Amino acid sequence: MAELTDNCQYKDLAEITLPDHRSGLSFRKHWWRLKKYMWYLSVLGPISGIPMIIRSSRPGKFMSRNKAKAHFSNANGNLGLKPGDWVRVKTAKEIFATLDANGKLRGLAFNPEMTAFCGKRFKVFKVLNRMIDESTGELRTIKTPTVFLEDVFCDGKSHGGCDRSCFHFWREAWLERTLE
Questions:
Q1: How far apart, in whole angstroms, are the C-alpha atoms of residue 36 and residue 67?
Q2: Domain coordinates in residue numbering, the chain
Q3: Looking at domain 68-180, does it have CATH number 2.30.30?
């Protein structure tokens, strides 16, 4: 590998792609899992939070028969939101009821930063139909109704202090239509 970095015009790139051997990295996934479980308990309380933790843990996935199914069923499918419509974000408990064992609704995770917006009213900024996956550059079509809300950005506190201020992705199942 030393020959590659000496002759390579992309020396920094070659060094970045080397494996990381820091000793604390093996504990990082356990730390994040513990933070997720504490988040479940803080929002749902111990009576509802402990079953959620058991379902999302490795042994719970083997014990649960419907491990990948969300608990939410919407009779009409979607709200048909358009930019400019007013919505209220459901409470965290209502949203948690829609999540599967992995903490996702049809592949989209509900992030800890999003709980700050629960129960509040916002205007729909944009309906998301397509997006580019940054990791692959692939253009993806969004099949489940998803929107961006006006002035609702990620603060990055649960993502290691990220300062990108990305929009949160909101499934229509997590929202209720309201009047202005």
A1: 18
A2: 27-67, 68-180
A3: yes
Give just the sign of the alpha carbon dihedral 110, 131, 78, 149.
positive
State which H helix or E strand residue 21 sits in.
none
Residues 6+ apart with CB under 8 A from 82: 124, 127
45: enclosing H helix or E strand = helix 25-56
- Contact call for residues 97 and 108 (beta carbons, < 8 A): no
| Count of other CB atoms within 10 angstroms of residue 55 | 19
Alpha carbon of 15 to those of 1, 3, 6, 49: distances in Å? Answer: 9, 12, 11, 43
State how far the Cα of 70 lies from the Cα of 87, in Å rounded to an integer.
22
Do 20 and 37 meet the contact criterion of CB atoms below 8 Å apart?
no
In degrees and rounded to multiples of 5, residue 90 shows phi and psi of -65, 165
Greatest Cα pair distance, the chain, in angstroms, is 66
pLDDT by position in tens, the chain (length 180) = 445 445 555 555 555 555 656 666 667 777 777 877 787 777 777 777 777 777 766 555 544 444 444 444 444 457 889 999 999 999 999 998 888 878 889 888 888 889 999 999 999 999 999 988 888 888 989 988 899 999 998 888 777 778 888 889 999 999 999 987
